[in-house]
């Protein structure tokens, strides 16, 4: 369970995020949509205690993220390429994360097997450092790594951006699969279709404020589409 | 013109340009100091040579060592000069002619700080020459020839940097020249010197130096033109993967995983390699001081030298913790990592390398037991206390590090701040007192034990110290993440 209470972030005089009260239930697949600058990344960064809130608190399983580090055991995230160690090969990177998450070698191997289609033969055994991979393939590595060790909460910022269409579809089917049924997933995107395929609850941000918070249904989809097309 | 205006914007809109003013001013003062030292040294060269070398003209002697100055310059350029090549990638698709872009890049490289050499080193000497009754035309010709050679080196280093064959060739030439000089009668320095002597004798000959310049320009031009595609010369080279699973470190348990990463980071990235190589040179620092009798009786010099011999790695590496990990700092901050463990693993690495340096410094025994004693005691002090002080200093360093890009000249000092300057007191001044006090009253052995003992205390209380620094790290967490995110 994740709770945001009166959370706000100001830079100088500009309010970039101001969320009064928002909670995400355990096992919920939560989609965050909004245009550029709506505050999606700010919200996730506050959630992961990467930036300091101007006011308010974030609680993950009752633990205040700014006060304790205990929440890190439960949470994994891939926000941007600052989550990749670019001088490692993908294998070494996976092994590093697996060690941090106390996953042994055989288990890691089994785990990676399920990404065979998603990796499309372009990730493993390439004898290349991560910095020499394309943006899309780097992203695949980061996304897969954030599921190592079965964290109960996974935060993904724009997971579909930079991926080719086949990979987008494979990612969607992985996220929606039974494996992740009990996980709390927080996914942001400015592409409505992707998020609505995976998430059961959609929150729309505009200029740092929650302006819509609804369960997914064909009707809300229409409404959201109307919002994005500016009607 | 267009290209130059882009260049202008690139320079003045760069984030470093807005860096702290205070650091800028200190940097400027440091630069002025070094400039002054060089100019002073160069202007003293003529009078000194005039007095000390009686059988030959000072200019002749100076010309004789020019070749070695050129070599030194090439080595410096190789390690430090950052070529502006990658910036042109964005321009390839735009309607600029290839020739134009290449010419622009090459012309631009002329304005590199490395080409101020003729002004700093040669001009003062030229002025001395003029005052010593050489004709204006002679002096100008001599200086002009050196300017042309400097530019020639400026272009050559491009190829040496990008092409291993030329690199080996250069290395062979330098080693060959030195070998010939030492083992045979052939002194290539003399031969090059004769060329410049000839210019002084007949100033119009300076014009001949335009040919090697044109040749080097043409060489680089065609070298770049041939590789003028995104995937060839312009992009950074994709290095072959250096594998190595370092599983021999597994006995260290959880610490091993950070240690493995640090080793990979050092081996696989340009910048840390550069710093580690430089820190290796610290091992030879003692040769300057322990060989001179005047220093042998000065305690503080001995302690300094003793600390430097084994401390090179920990004093440099620690200054960049956590900046080494700046490019994936967010990962470390959200992953299941205890900060203390992270810190201790860095500390272990520093202690480990200091121990290796200590073993490597055993040949200093040649200079006697008191030298070895101070090195060993200094090594303990480095392991136990200087490691922690440096790690604390590293925390204050919030400049993100581009791992796989060579440091520009003076870039290693860019992140230098007043606080770090003050840390010299516990790092260097404190050990002098720790040695000097007991040594004065009880003899040098007591000094060694006092110095080493302080270090051993730091090792014994490592957990307590690590806890304190960890608390500071956590306090500055957001500030550091933000700074590293730039």
CATH superfamily of the largest domain in chain A: P-loop containing nucleotide triphosphate hydrolases
What is the helical fraction of chain A, as a range of percent? 25-40%
Strand content of chain A: 25-35%
Q: How many structurally independent domains of chain B?
A: 2
**Biggest chain contact:** A-B, 33 and 32 residues
Number of domains as seen in the coordinates of chain A: 2
Oligomeric state of the chains present here: heterodimer
Description:
- The complex is a heterodimer of chains A (231) and B (486).
- Chain A is built from eight helices and ten strands.
- By secondary structure, chain A is an alpha/beta fold.
- Chain A has two domains: 1-74 and 152-231, P-loop containing nucleotide triphosphate hydrolases (Rossmann fold), CATH 3.40.50; 85-151, no CATH class.
- Chain A has a six-stranded mixed sheet, with helices on both faces.
- In chain A, a hairpin with a 2-residue loop joins strand 9 and strand 10 (209-215).
- The longest helix of chain A has 11 residues, at 90-100.
- Chain B contains 23 helices and no strands.
- Chain B has helices at residues 2-12, 21-52, 58-80, 98-109, 117-131, 136-162, 164-183, 188-201, 210-226, 230-234, 255-268, 270-281, 285-290, 293-296, 299-317, 329-334, 339-360, 369-396, 418-422, 424-442, 444-460, 462-475, 477-484.
- Chain B is mainly alpha-helical and 486 residues long.
- Residues 230-237 of chain B have low confidence and may be disordered.
- Chain B folds into two domains: 2-234, no CATH class; 247-484, no CATH class.
- The A-B interface holds A 48-52, 69, 72-73, 75-77, 79-80, 82-89, 92, 96-97, 99-101, 127-129, 131-132, 149 and B 238-241, 243, 254, 257, 261, 264-265, 268-269, 327-331, 333-339, 403-404, 477-478, 481-482, 484-485.
């Amino acid at each position: 369970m994740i709770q945001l209470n009166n959370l706000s972030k100001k830079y100088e005089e500009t309010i970039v995020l101001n969320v009064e009260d928002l909670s995400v239930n355990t096992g919920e697949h939560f989609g965050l949509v909004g245009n550029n600058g709506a505050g999606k990344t700010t919200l996730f960064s506050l959630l992961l205690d990467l930036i300091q809130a101007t006011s308010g608190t974030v609680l993950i399983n009752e633990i205040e993220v700014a006060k304790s580090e205990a929440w890190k055991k439960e949470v994994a995230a891939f926000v941007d390429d600052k989550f990749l160690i670019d001088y490692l090969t993908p294998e070494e990177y996976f092994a590093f994360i697996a060690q941090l998450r106390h996953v042994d070698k055989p288990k890691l191997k089994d785990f990676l097997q399920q990404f065979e289609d998603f990796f499309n033969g372009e990730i493993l055994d390439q004898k290349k450092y991560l910095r020499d991979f394309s943006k899309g393939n780097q992203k695949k590595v980061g996304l897969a790594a954030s599921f190592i060790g079965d964290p109960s909460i996974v935060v993904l910022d724009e997971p579909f951006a930079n991926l080719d269409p086949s990979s987008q579809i494979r990612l969607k089917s992985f996220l929606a699969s039974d494996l992740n049924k009990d996980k709390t997933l927080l996914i942001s995107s400015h592409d409505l279709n992707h998020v609505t395929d995976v998430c059961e609850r959609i929150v729309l941000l505009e200029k740092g404020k929650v302006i819509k918070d609804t369960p997914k249904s064909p009707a809300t989809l229409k409404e959201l589409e109307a919002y994005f097309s500016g009607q | 013109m267009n290209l130059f205006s882009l260049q202008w914007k690139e320079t003045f809109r760069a984030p470093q340009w807005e860096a702290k003013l205070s650091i800028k001013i200190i940097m400027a003062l440091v630069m002025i100091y070094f400039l002054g030292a060089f100019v002073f040294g160069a202007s003293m060269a003529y009078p000194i040579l005039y007095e000390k070398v009686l059988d030959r003209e000072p200019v002749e002697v100076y010309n004789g060592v020019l070749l070695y100055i050129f070599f030194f310059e090439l080595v410096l350029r190789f390690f430090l000069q950052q070529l502006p090549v990658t910036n042109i990638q964005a321009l390839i698709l735009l309607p600029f002619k290839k020739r134009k872009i290449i010419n622009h890049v090459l012309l631009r490289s002329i304005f590199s700080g490395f080409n101020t050499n003729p002004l700093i080193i040669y001009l003062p000497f030229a002025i001395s020459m003029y005052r010593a009754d050489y004709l204006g035309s002679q002096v100008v010709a001599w200086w002009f020839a050196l300017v042309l050679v400097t530019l020639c080196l400026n272009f050559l280093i491009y190829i040496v940097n990008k092409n291993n064959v030329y690199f080996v060739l250069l290395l062979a030439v330098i080693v060959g020249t030195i070998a010939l000089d030492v083992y045979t009668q052939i002194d290539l320095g003399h031969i090059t010197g004769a060329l410049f002597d000839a210019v002084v004798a007949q100033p119009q000959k300076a014009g001949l130096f335009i040919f090697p310049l044109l040749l080097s320009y043409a060489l680089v031009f065609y070298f770049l033109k041939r590789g003028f595609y995104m995937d060839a010369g312009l992009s950074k080279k994709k290095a072959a993967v250096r594998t190595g699973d370092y599983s021999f470190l597994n006995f260290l348990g959880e610490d091993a995983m950070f240690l493995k990463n640090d080793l990979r980071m050092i081996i696989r990235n340009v910048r840390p390699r550069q710093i580690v190589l430089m820190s290796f040179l610290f091992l030879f620092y003692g040769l300057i001081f322990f060989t001179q009798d005047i220093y042998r009786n000065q305690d503080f010099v001995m302690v300094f030298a003793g600390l430097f011999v084994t401390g090179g790695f920990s004093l440099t590496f620690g200054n960049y913790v956590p900046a080494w990990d700046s490019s994936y700092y967010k990962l470390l901050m959200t992953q299941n990592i205890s900060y203390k463990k992270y810190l201790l693993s860095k500390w272990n690495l520093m202690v480990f390398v200091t121990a290796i340096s200590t073993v490597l410094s055993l040949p200093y025994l040649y200079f006697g037991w008191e030298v070895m004693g101070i090195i060993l005691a200094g090594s303990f002090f480095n392991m136990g206390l200087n490691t922690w002080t440096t790690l604390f200093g590293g925390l204050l360093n919030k400049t993100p590090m581009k791992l796989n890009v060579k440091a520009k000249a003076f870039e290693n000092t860019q992140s230098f701040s007043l606080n770090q300057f003050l840390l010299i007191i516990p790092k260097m001044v404190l050990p002098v007192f720790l040695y000097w006090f007991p040594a004065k009253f009880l003899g040098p052995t007591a000094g060694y034990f006092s110095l080493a003992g302080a270090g051993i205390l730091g090792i014994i209380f490592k957990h307590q110290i690590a806890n304190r620094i960890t608390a500071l790290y956590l306090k500055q967490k957001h500030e550091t993440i933000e700074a590293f995110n730039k």
